[in-house]
Design brief:
This protein has 12 helices and 7 strands. It is an alpha/beta fold. Helix 3 links the parallel strand 3 and strand 4.
């Protein structure tokens, strides 16, 4: 979830990010990992943006990741292979405070090879750096502040002042999600208006994902109930036709998947002896 939100912000507000990271606003376009000829290591956390002369590679991380240094040199080589004349800036941005030495690691090094990249720990960044640009507002609560709730309150006031309703709703929803890394949900809901967030692309995508997950769980639960009812019905029919089943035969029927249960429902009409059920189960097992 956090990967998708950070990727959305970087792509929609690229001038805000380049002003923060590069010192000047540059409008960038998305660079698909498929353009680099090789399959991405983990495309969901990868953000590649490009202009005519440069490529910006961002990695947002909630936890220390020992694989990051190799990822950085790997994508540097991939970009060079595809765009040898373009410069490249690579920045790893850690969202959650950590004492791990990994959040300070900014090189990949093996014998006779060394690659450097930039690392930003948001909890060390001044809050003011995020309050002047709509695309950076969602990260303000993670910055160097003595009162995260007050910082989120200030952020919410700035969001209310955004004139463009679409931008306002997208920034509000993104802020609510990212602030969840450091603040309780009820505190966030007190400051950020849910009616505004409902209009955002991020909020609507989350609702759709939740709806799909619920539907999938309901369908799975329904299939399990149908399967259980079918097992019980077959056991009753087998008992009427063949007499009491042994615990082993009962267990054998209960372990059958739905397709074999349906096949057993047809086959049992020809059974006259328990041995026939035993043979049938042995055949399918």
């Amino acid at each position: 979830m956090f990967d998708n939100v950070c990727k959305f912000l970087a792509e929609q507000f690229s001038p805000d990010f380049t002003r923060w990271l590069l010192g000047k606003p540059i409008t960038l376009t998305q660079l698909s990992p498929t353009e680099l000829s090789l399959e991405p290591i983990r495309a969901d956390s990868l953000i590649l943006l490009q202009s005519e002369n440069m490529v910006l590679h961002l990695e947002f991380q909630t936890k220390p990741n020992p694989d990051i240094p190799f990822r950085m040199i790997d994508y540097r080589c991939r970009v060079y292979r595809r765009f040898p004349k373009k410069s490249m800036r690579q920045v790893v941005i850690y969202l959650c405070q950590s004492d791990s030495p990994l959040v300070h690691q900014n090189t990949f090094s093996i014998p006779r090879t060394r690659h450097e990249f930039e690392v930003i720990r948001l909890w060390e960044q001044p809050t003011g750096a995020f309050l002047g640009s709509p695309g950076l507002l969602p990260f303000a609560a993670l910055s160097k502040t003595s009162d995260r709730f007050q910082t989120l309150q200030q952020t919410a006031q700035l969001i209310d002042n955004i004139a463009n309703q679409r931008v306002q709703s997208n920034v509000a929803a993104s802020t609510a999600i990212i602030a969840g890394l450091v603040l309780e949900r009820d505190l966030i809901n007190r400051l950020l208006r849910r009616d505004i967030m409902r209009e955002s692309v991020i909020y609507q995508e989350m609702e759709q994902e939740i709806l799909q997950k619920v539907n999938q769980e309901v369908r799975q639960e329904f299939r399990q109930e149908v399967r259980q009812e079918l097992r019980q019905m077959l056991l009753r029919q087998l008992t009427r036709r063949l007499g009491n089943l042994t615990p082993e035969l009962t267990e054998g029927v209960q372990k059958l998947p739905i397709e074999q249960l349906e096949a057993l429902g047809e086959a049992l009409l020809d059974f006259n002896e328990l041995e026939e059920l035993v043979s049938w189960l042995e055949q399918y097992n």
